[in-house]
Design a protein that fits this description.
Blueprint lengths: L1 H9 L2 H13 L5 H17 L11 H17 L5 H12 L9 H13 L5 H14 L14 H17 L3 H20 L20 H6 L5 H20 L1
Helix pairs in contact: 1-2, 2-4, 3-4, 3-5, 5-6, 6-9, 7-9, 8-9
Length: about 240
């Protein structure tokens, strides 16, 4: 490390090149981090061209900078293409030509990765839409969710709503809590899984009308008729 610092300070390209060779002989910290940084630098140099004359003025500068970013990516679990793409999207919004620090770019990766999540109001709207039309679909997984995370959040919301008899405001708090949890997962590089029909269906028990509609042998209809006849007989006796 001291050799690296000294070589960077003195801009000794030969020493930096030798350090790079030695670094390649060492075990790679994270294969994904190495590949991501290599591809990332090609993109960032176009977004921040001033770096060619400052922090990335020589090949040795590039090698040293990449080495630090590879270590930082591995240490901060920036290991997916989605995370880096999110960081690049944030980089495009910047108003400066100057190369960002590694820590700043990692922050962009995390911020950008969660920027596409729905808002609590959007979750509540989808929650109501699902509740109103869920009987049109065989399983919750078949519902046309507007965002993959909606399935997981709304299934959790419905489960808690029925279990704890939550009010609308309490259900919205559950939505916000779930959004926060998913934002943390995405920032760590986790992917949102697709809905799965194997999960238990947490819908309310079917109504009498629904049971009647799926009563091929007429059992529920006969039971209703018998109950109605008993009520009429009782009314005649009392009259």
């Amino acid at each position: 490390m001291n050799k690296l610092i000294s070589a960077v300070q003195e801009r000794d390209a030969g020493a930096l090149a030798q350090i790079a060779v030695d670094a390649h002989r060492e075990p790679v910290v994270n294969d994904n981090a190495v590949k991501l940084v290599d591809a990332l630098f090609d993109n960032l140099i176009r977004l921040f061209p001033a770096a060619r004359h400052t922090v990335l003025a020589t090949p040795g500068d590039v090698v040293a900078m990449k080495r630090q970013w590879i270590l930082a990516f591995a240490e901060n679990n920036i290991t997916t293409v989605e995370q880096v793409r999110a960081g690049v999207r944030m980089a495009r919004r910047q108003d400066s030509d100057f190369w960002p620090s590694c820590g700043k770019f990692i922050g962009w990766c995390r911020e950008g990765a969660t920027a596409g999540l729905p808002s609590p109001d959007e979750v509540m709207a989808e929650f109501e839409r699902f509740g109103a039309t869920r009987d049109l679909y065989g399983t919750a997984a078949e519902f046309p969710w507007s965002h993959p995370v909606m399935y997981w959040i709304i299934m959790d919301m419905r489960q808690k709503m029925y279990r704890y008899q939550q009010t609308t405001s309490e259900t919205k708090k559950t939505a916000q809590h779930q959004l926060n949890l998913w934002a943390q997962k995405i920032a760590r590089g986790e992917k949102i899984p697709s809905p799965v029909s194997q999960l238990p269906d947490n819908r309310r028990p079917p109504s009498v009308i629904q049971e009647k509609n799926r009563d091929p042998d007429g059992r529920y209809q006969r039971r209703g008729t018998e109950m109605l006849e008993r009520i009429r007989a009782r009314q005649k006796q009392e009259g």
